[in-house]
Amino acid sequence: MTFTKPQTLKSISELIGAKMIGDENFPVFGTNEIHRVKSGEIVFVNHPKYYDKALNSAATIILIDKEVDCPPGKALLVSDDPFRDFNKINTHFTKITHFGETLHELEVGERTQIHSSVVIGNNVKIGNDCIIYPNVVIGDRTVIGDSVIIQSNTVLGGDAFYYRKLDGNFDRLISVGNVIIENNVEIGNNCTIDRGVTDSTIIGEGSVLDNQIQIGHDTTIGKKCLIASLTGIAGCCIIEDEVTIWGQVGMASGVRVEKGTVLLGKTGVNKDLKTGTYFGQLAEEFKEYLKKQSKLRKL
To answer: Which of 265, 257, 261 is nearest to 244 (CA)?
Structure first.
């Protein structure tokens, strides 16, 4: 998330009541998760296991639960609860609505058709020549390109599935990102595409999604991908261009699938995949899978 106006280390420190380590005028441009964070942004970390990753990331401000040595050129915000304070920063700079307020800042292009039953949030942009069918829900800050088709009952911009367990309950990391649908995308019925926690969930130009597909927060789908029904893709994944994903594929968070890959039906993906064709409960190259099955039958 990028702030409307740049902040300073001091202003953020005062907002959340955290101790600052660094120049009080150190510039702060926004917040982000570790996999998307850039220079000038805040990343949070609340477990020693991930200290090094956060401190050595592209982030220049680290919101952390312990005072540690500050890397050169960076600043620290020391908090007793970074998760809580990350939410506090994000919700301070991003208005959270629940479809209960008057619609504002909606942009709709020429020749776009939107059914009267569609529910649209705030700060939404929809391009030219789109068709949006009945009962679609479009969440806050969603950006839709030109010539996009969205079939009935699809939800764009639901909350990310991102929680921690606190005092026996589940505490949500509040989603302040958005969904971006690029030009010439088709999305089937009953799909759910979660918005990013602090960044964007992106569906690339020319991609086609079948019915009943779930795409998690901050995932990027490349250009001209084809995704069949009942596929579930977790958050923070990167699917490169021209990937074909057949039905009931399941994908763990944070994996990358290279350009041109084919995932056959019911494949489980728990690791990065080079270009190829894959199948199996734990994805393996399809030719190797067939060789293994042939050998097993001969036993």
So the answer is: 261
Report field, pTM of the whole predicted structure over 0.90: yes
Phi, psi of 10 (to 5 degrees): -65, -45
Three-class DSSP category at 254 = coil
Contact of 187 with 209, CB cutoff 8 Å = yes
Same domain, 12 and 141: no
Q: What distance in Å separates the CA atoms of residue 190 and residue 29, rounded to the nearest whole number?
A: 36
115 plus 177 within the same structural domain:
yes
Assess contact for 217 and 236: CB atoms under 8 A: yes
CA distance 30 to 42: 6
- Looking at the annotation, which residues are catalytic? 217
Q: What is the CATH number of the domain that holds 240?
A: 2.160.10.10
Q: Tens digits of per-residue pLDDT, 119-176?
A: 999 999 999 999 999 999 999 999 999 999 999 999 999 999 999 998 999 999 999 9
For 62: left if phi > 0, alpha if psi spans -120 to 50, otherwise beta; the answer is beta
